[in-house]
């Protein structure tokens, strides 16, 4: 009976939305938003939410920005109410005073987005709304606070417990394959033949996280090559004429491309869970797999060299390899974390810098970002947790001895030593 009641309720809600969907009677969306937060009726609230979402979709950028500013300022916290509620809780801690503090300290706009999310299919729409916010917000601090509210909500709505890991194969629905082509952000997929080479052979795999509210939209996906030994070139790994091998013969799983798919989910981390889950699943499926590595770009290298005034045109592959090793070990951003975003990601997941390769990506993009240099990050399934904890605590870059020696041989090591001595 409970299942039947739920089904009837869902049918009624959707039918009500179809019947009640109408123009906003000339009222601005900001006014409808205020009505939605103050509404008590669930079904009437759904109709309001539907009208707001439909209206926002018709807005141009100027109107969207005005909507964001109004929501950010008129549905903000009242600092005085927060201070008063906190004082009452400190003087007399109780369920009631704590509830009052929670109510005062949560902006009304968070409840607005929760109520908007009650509309069937609204989760993906709200993700696109945040993408608009990130694109339009500029330097406005009140919009930064609004974005933090959305990040807070999305971190709950998209936590690992809700995500579904699905394999992507050449037999997957065409609309999913279209999205893999469109969202690939590391090594562009040039054609359907290129996609088939990455998905169809037995020694190639692809996995993606999906959310139940967005079943046709991958959130993030990873492409995996099953190999013998650790590869040192992306062109060799993706060569058109390469010979495929049985998956059972592989001893290494190579994560060679990880792509986030939804701009509106920026800063919501899925990649660490994705890699660990895929590695675990592959290890269980293929007992011969002993090594789990990436073949990763070094996107910040040339940018950092230019920033520090150290860029050298025409550096040899050997010099670029040693430079890249030093950069990965020593170049820091704010807070002592590695300057390179890919290094921050993998080291934060518990990997180590295993090997650096010259002329590993000879594409125009690879040359532009790192002189063609790439890096293997090694995931030791028995040490991931230990490495993660150490990196989170000390920000120390874990690396193989060969990488440490290579870094010390770099001309940068002497340059930086000279600066320190001076």
Automatic annotation (TrEMBL):
One Pfam match: MCD
Domain Malonyl-CoA decarboxylase C-terminal: 161-311, 320-380
Coiled coil: none
Malonyl-CoA decarboxylase N-terminal domain segment(s): 77-158
One GO BP annotation of this record: fatty acid biosynthetic process
Source superkingdom: Bacteria
UniProt-listed InterPro entries: Malonyl_CoA_deC, Malonyl_CoA_deC_C, Malonyl_CoA_deC_C_sf, MCD_N, MCD_N_sf
Protein name: Malonyl-CoA decarboxylase
Species this chain originates from: Roseibium aggregatum
